[in-house]
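Project outcomes to date are best conveyed with an example. Our students and postdoctoral researchers have been running inverse folding experiments weekly, and each run begins with a structure described purely in tokens. The record below, which covers 507 residues, was selected by the lab manager from last quarter's runs and is presented without edits.
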């Protein structure tokens, strides 16, 4: 290759996800939580026995106890939740370690609890602890290092402040508060707040400001109201808790509806447990009744921007999940156990791709979920089978390199979950493997690029590692105008050697 290259672009991406695996179980084991790296999968069967799967060793594990709750699992295979009503962790499907660092609250012995979230390194935890006949309080725990779990001197803990009023708009005390998870570094904890009257709910964040100091922030609440209320021009009426007569309650509800923008949060705990490990995006479902849309839609709250993004491409949607790349899983119909999932993006909420098509595209046709998730629902008048396909309720791994989806075969006498774990495993194309860098120009380009020599096996990936273009042989120009604006990894071969660069397309 000539050395007088017109342009050499530094390689910024050290790994490209191209390989893939599919694992599945149809024997009733239920997986709906994935570790961020997509190696481990876990869940419970009807909130009973715990299930654990290590995709790299192809090993399944289950608890002997039929009283298990699981809320998250990290990249080391440490799952958190509860065993027989007591807070603890499950280590790679084997030993349970119970959380015994805190023995009492307000001089009352601990009666049980559950770990609802943990940091990536399993040294920071948030738990709901029960004491004094069933009282519940959120507690933050910190461990100096995981190896010291059994050393009570290695732990510190503090109770989290509990919001007593939703203080921005509704100004109602809570009917209940639910802890729903923790981000990677343990600085954000997600909570679910149901208003006193039980008719509205909003998510909120505990944000760690300094050591042992937590602030409370209700997120994207102003998105729920008309502009005059959100900016303070119109004040909300008196507290709903002060209403006594049926007429007062009706008047209050009518006024509230007139002030709302037509978005109502419908927060599922399973959705909230699937929020991004970075702590930026919260997946929710919204009921919409306005000029914009009508019905149930998937939505995502951007905590950093305090905004709400509604995914209108898929109506009748229920719980969603979102990975750290901003890719969203959406399932529909909401009120069904037999569902179809779609993939959308925080950057393009008006478009969505059927999960079957997405997997086929990402794996170059090597994984066909349709083959496994097609069910015989009936026969026609001539006795010929009738089939229906559905891609289930899908949940992302946070890093976006894997997901798990599950369905219930409604036409099978044994209604048990059927789970499918798809991994886009790593096949590394690194700078070390690239003996030459590729010269392309212009770069950035609006679509047409020119090459200094003829190339073989041209493959282009987006920044998520998905193959978006391939050509076995390329002359000294390529038309990439079919690709959208963005940054892409361009790989090829020259005389048997790998070459690689980054290409930016602008429109």
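After processing, the design step wrote out the following sequence:
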């Amino acid at each position: 290759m000539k050395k007088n290259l017109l342009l050499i672009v530094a390689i910024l991406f050290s790994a490209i996800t191209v390989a893939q695996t599919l694992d599945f179980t149809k024997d009733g084991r239920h997986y709906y939580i994935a570790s961020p790296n997509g190696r481990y999968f876990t869940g419970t069967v009807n909130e009973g026995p715990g299930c654990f799967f290590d995709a790299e060793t192809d090993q399944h594990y289950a608890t002997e106890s039929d009283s298990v709750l699981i809320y998250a699992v990290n990249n080391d295979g440490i799952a958190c939740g509860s065993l027989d009503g007591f807070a603890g962790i499950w280590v790679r499907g084997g030993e349970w370690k119970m959380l015994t660092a805190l023995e009492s609250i307000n001089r009352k012995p601990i009666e049980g609890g559950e770990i609802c979230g943990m940091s990536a390194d399993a040294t920071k935890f948030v738990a709901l602890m029960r004491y004094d006949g069933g009282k519940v309080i959120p507690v933050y725990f910190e461990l100096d290092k995981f190896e010291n779990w059994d050393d009570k001197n290695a732990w510190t803990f503090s109770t989290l402040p509990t919001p007593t009023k939703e203080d921005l708009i509704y100004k109602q005390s809570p009917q209940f508060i639910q802890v729903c998870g923790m981000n990677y570094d343990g600085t954000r904890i997600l909570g679910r707040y149901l208003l006193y009257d039980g008719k509205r709910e909003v998510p909120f964040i505990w944000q760690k400001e300094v050591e042992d100091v937590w602030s409370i922030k209700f997120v994207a609440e102003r998105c729920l109201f008309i502009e005059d209320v959100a900016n303070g021009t119109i004040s909300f009426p008196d507290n709903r808790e002060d209403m006594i007569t049926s007429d007062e309650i009706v008047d209050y509800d009518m006024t509230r509806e007139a002030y709302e923008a037509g978005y109502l949060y419908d927060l599922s705990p399973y959705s909230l447990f699937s929020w991004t490990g970075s702590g930026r995006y919260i997946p929710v479902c919204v009921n919409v009744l306005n000029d914009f849309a009508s019905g149930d839609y998937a939505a995502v709250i951007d905590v950093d921007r305090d905004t709400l993004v509604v995914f209108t491409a898929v109506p009748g949607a229920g719980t969603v999940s979102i990975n750290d790349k901003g890719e969203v899983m959406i399932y529909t119909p909401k009120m069904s156990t037999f569902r179809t999932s779609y993939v959308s993006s925080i950057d393009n909420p008006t478009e969505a791709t059927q999960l079957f098509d997405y997997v086929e595209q990402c794996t170059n046709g090597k994984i066909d979920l349709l083959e496994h998730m097609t069910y015989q629902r009936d026969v026609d008048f001539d006795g010929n089978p009738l089939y229906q396909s559905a891609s289930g309720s899908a949940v992302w791994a946070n890093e976006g390199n894997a997901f798990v989806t599950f369905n219930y075969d409604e036409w099978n006498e044994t209604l048990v979950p059927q789970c499918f774990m798809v991994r886009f495993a790593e096949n590394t194309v690194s700078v070390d493997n690239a003996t030459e860098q590729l010269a392309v120009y212009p770069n950035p380009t609006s679509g047409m690029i020119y090459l200094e020599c003829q190339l073989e096996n041209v493959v282009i990936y987006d920044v998520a590692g998905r193959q978006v273009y391939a050509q076995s042989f390329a002359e000294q120009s390529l038309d990439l105008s079919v690709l959208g604006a963005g940054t892409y990894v361009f790989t090829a071969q020259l005389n048997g050697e790998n070459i690689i660069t980054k290409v930016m397309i602008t429109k």
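Residues 97 and 229 are 49 Å apart (CA to CA). Helices lie at 227-230, 246-259, 269-272, 355-362, 369-372. The training component of this project remains on track.
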